[in-house]
Amino acid sequence: MKHRLAGALVASLLASSFLSPAAALANGGTPAAPPHYKHVLLVSVDGMHAVDLKRWIGTHPYSNFALLAAHGVQYPGAYTTGPSDSFPGMLAQVTGGTPKSAGLFYDDSYDRTEYKSKAFYTSQGLTDPGCVGPAGTEVTNFEALDKTYNFSTGLVADYTAGGTLGQVATQLDPDNMQRKIVDGQCVPVYPHQYVRDNTIFEIIKAAGRRTAWSDKHPAYEDLAGPSGKGLDELFAPEINSQDTLDPGAQTGDDYTKSYTGVRTYDTLKVNAVVNWIDGYDGSRTTKQAVPAIFGMNFQAVSVGQKLAKAGAADADKTLVGGYLDAKATPGNALTLQFQFVDDALGKFLAELQRQRIDDQTLVIVSAKHGQSPIDRSLRKAISDAAYGSAPGFGANGFEICDDEALVWLSPEMQQGVDPATGKKYYDEARAYLEANAAQLQIQQLLGREAVTKLFQDPFKDSRAPDFVAITNHGAICTGGSKLAEHGGFSNDDRNVLLLLSAPNLQPATVEGRVYTTQIAPTILTALGLDPFKLDAVREEGTDILRVSR
């Protein structure tokens, strides 16, 4: 097997993953959502594939998904970003950009210009040196930024993250953030400061309209955009916190450790969305205008795909996660999770009707990412430990592996020469990864040339990975029992549901490739705002979603 990336594969990835969606829709078509809506409800059902939507409607013709489709436009060829991680996947929907312009590759990633957090040193019983020494550190845009994050257990005390829901500044701890030198000062870097493209929230708020979102970590403060001012409200209960709401949960169980737990968790966000529809803040304490843009992500399906068996909080111990076959037939646990999401969508639709704003609201349902493999017979659990032995990885390198791997060498070694061999560390690292391709299940290794074409030059950009390891389909980095993961480039990772629905829309199915990046300019168009105000629309040529003529 040849492990160096062939030029043909680079061209294929450019065409299928990163080419301007406008080029993919060269045949034209009318806008899927004409510009006369006052509100857009955006929903991300994390993990849900296009085939899942097709199967659910086929087997549940009177479901809420079916009701949405009866007045909606479906895109069975919709693809999310590569890498298919939650952070770039969500940013795609609200910036219109891929990591190439938006600048974030993963929620757990790396920056060559930054330094470890103050809390990192405190947790190790070490003296904080500040921004001193070789730069380069892991970037932890997840629960590790929360006020009550425990560095020993990796858990947060409870879902409030030590603050007040709806007031994200009270949940985040600057001492837990990575740092960089700005004007000679060592300062924390907030999540929104990593985002290089502006977001729809910034543009909509600048137009004098209200914005709100609910997601799984307070770190989704990044959606406020580079200005940090795009969100009027981020309602962010922490998913990776001790499950304090389910009676059967054990110490150390977060809300992803049971099918019941994640539904309980998602219900917090469902209630926030209903409260927004009713003209309140997410906690239903203060009257507010109904947001022009609002919504949430669901975690129930993702956990149903990944969690192998019932957890402590599940009363029914016969539940088993994942799919039953390669055709994406959901098992009993995953069926429950789909039904939960379907019921929640029904609550949203009923409340929109009750408030008499259903005909003023465009509903968009998609997913940040899929999940791989669907066919559990292809699952192959592997260790990612070997990445850490790559030449040039050193003490300051980093890698993240779910069902693909991103690798960053130590910045001070990346372009250096190994004194023991006289060879460049980078070349040695490439040779090492190729030699260990079978062990690491690497199908194709993307080095500097390919990464530069797809994203940015890792020798010049502080965040672009040195290597992207595209793994064999079904390989996941885990020492546990999880059935699937995401982050990779396969169809299972990236071919997600995409549905636009409103009472005035005629049902249609648009075949062919589209991208979740197209959601962002479509939302602005639907609200009567200029999609060309989005940086990514101009930089990456992102088109609105259309209905073919």
Describe, in short, the structure shown.
The protein has about 550 residues and is of the alpha/beta class. The chain has helices at about 5-20, 20-25, 50-60, 65-70, 85-95, 100, 120-125, 200-205, 260-275, 300-305, 330-355, 410-415, 425-435, 435-440, 450-455, 490-495, 520-525, 535-540, and strands spanning about 30, 40-45, 70-75, 80, 110, 135-140, 180, 185-190, 210-215, 235, 295-300, 360-365, 380, 400, 405-410, 440-445, 465-470, 475, 500, 510, 515, 545. The protein is about 30% helix and about 15% strand.
Can you describe this structure?
- The protein is α/β, with parallel strands linked by helices.
- It folds into two domains: 12-107 and 189-377 and 486-547, Alkaline Phosphatase, subunit A (3-Layer(aba) Sandwich), CATH 3.40.720; 380-477, Gyrase A, domain 2, CATH 3.30.1360.
- The protein is 28% helix and 15% strand.
- The protein has a six-stranded mixed β-sheet with strand order 11-2-12-19-3-20, with helices on both faces. Strands 14-15-17-16 form a four-stranded antiparallel β-sheet.
- Strand 14 (398-401) and strand 15 (405-408) form a beta hairpin.
- The radius of gyration is 22 Å and the shape is globular.
- The model is unreliable at 1-9 and 15-27 (pLDDT under 50).
Structural key phrases:
549 residues; alpha/beta; globular; four-stranded antiparallel β-sheet; Alkaline Phosphatase, subunit A; 18 helices
